[in-house]
Amino acid sequence: MGPRRGRRGSEATKAAILDAARERFAADGYDRATIRTIAAEAEIDPALVMRYFGSKEQLFAAAASFDLRIPDLAALPRKTVGAALVGHFVDRWEDDDTLKALLRAAASNPEAAARFRTIFATQLVPAVHGLFPNRATAATRAGLVASQMLGLAMTRYLLRLSSVVALDRASLIGWLGPSIQRYLTAD
């Protein structure tokens, strides 16, 4: 399939690029998806992808949507919410290369960073809010949880600090669970 010969508006072109990018990132992962393949699926010239999105990282950030599948914290025994949430995030990071790619992009790209903020604001804050009636308290607590989980992801998956990479799931829960528990339940 070659570049589309007919003309379409910029919004339609952007939408076609994003649709193709979502399909390619989902099917091939971040590393194997290419601008050329995405452009071919969108039936446009690869230069248009770069014109509208600037880079593969920026395209990924625009196309990325993630469901963190955060468990219902209010339904868990209160004394286990910290460990449960750490275990959940470790499992998500271990199994999702596209989530790691978004973190990598967020470190240097404002659009990807904004995507991460939106994901946490719309998914983590409401989960924590289920434990606290005060929305401001929930947002602060969720922000502290995010600082730990994103710090773990950065050191384990991007920087690959050997001492952190060497920890197994149970050890990560043992080390981080008490801090997350405090963020979620302390007065």
Features:
single chain; 187 residues; mainly alpha; Arc Repressor Mutant, subunit A; Tetracycline Repressor, domain 2; 2 domains; 10 helices; 73% helix
Overview of this protein structure:
By secondary structure, this protein is mainly α. It folds into two domains: 10-63, Arc Repressor Mutant, subunit A, CATH 1.10.10; 73-185, Tetracycline Repressor, domain 2 (Orthogonal Bundle), CATH 1.10.357. Helices cover 73% and strands 0% of the residues. The protein is built from ten helices and no strands. It has helices at residues 10-32, 35-42, 46-53, 56-63, 81-95, 97-106, 110-129, 135-158, 162-165, 169-185. The chain starts with 9 loop residues before the first helix and ends with a helix. The model has no long low-confidence stretch (mean pLDDT 89).
